[in-house]
Write a structure and sequence with these properties.
heterodimer, A: alpha/beta, globular, B: 110 residues, alpha+beta, 3-stranded antiparallel β-sheet, 6 strands, binds zinc ion
Chain lengths: 250, 110
Amino acid sequence: MCNHCGCSAEKARISDPQSGKHTHLHMDGNSLKLQESLLAGNTALAEQNRKWLQKLQVIAINLMGTPGAGKTALLEATLKAPQFASLDISVLEGDQQTSNDAKRIQSAGGKVLQINTGTGCHLDADMIHSGIHSLEPQPGSLLFIENVGNLVCPALFDLGENYRITMMSVTDGADKPEKYPHMFSECDLIIINKADLLPYVDFDLEYAKNCIAKLNPDADVILMSANKQGDADEENQQWQQWLMNRVNNA
Amino acid sequence: MHELSLVKSLLQQVEPYQDRPIKKVVLEVGTMTCVDPERLVFCFDMVKEEAGLSDVNLQINMQQAIAKCQQCEREFKLQQLGQPCECGSYHYTIGTGRDLNLIEIEFNDV
Ligand SMILES: [Zn+2]
């Protein structure tokens, strides 16, 4: 009997001498029984990224959200904020096409690399692996990975990040968490952006917060106006606090 | 569409076994993976001819998600995210229901 999986019908075994992982070939007539994860390749690479970043003492944050939620605006404001002046921040910018966002990050003073996914709708661990090679984040720095604007696909792919942020704005509609539960249930922080537009849009904040509390009761939720950062706005201070806590606890 | 990425991985995983004619490929898809089985089949149909798998039937077995409540420690079937435990708590860990596995390859008689 195999002492890894307890099977008794072992006919053959394929082992990886490096990792010690093994796959069984249970051939039963014309049928081959397997137990292989379709995401195994991505997961292994993500784990490699995580170890690499950990060795460099780099904190990686996967920033996901709707297109137009204000992800790039948040990064620009964060780069410009005097509170973060001491931090070394670099950004891997994911988009299907163009380098528009990368240019914005560069203008804001950030070290940035654009990753165009082409027809792909999410970043994967392999792209991040190449990205880190080219970007060379400095030891002890902070790495933001701005994912492709999309509330579905990025949720499935581990990139090797330490934290996940999901971002939406009050112009997106209050039922976004309810409509895209996976994205909102698998993150550490949810940012509801463009709070300054609340008086002008029909957005039921309590409803959205209520949905989030059911989907992800342990997540932090911050309401903010990313493009109005820099002033002593209380809401934006929450973001600064959240980020500093992560940096200081690393 | 992440289903297309999954199909690409599937093709890679099936490739080493293609020296024998394949009749059926069985996948196990957890109900909490945000993978749409119909879209998965659609993506597979799109590329199967090119991959030399035109006669393959893709079977998808859904795997029921089971969560464990952190409040009352009960295990329960999770039908959808955001559903409370019987005790009313939303604090639970999802055990099974997140798998995306290739579990079986069936060959034609030679
Ligand atoms: Zn309970």
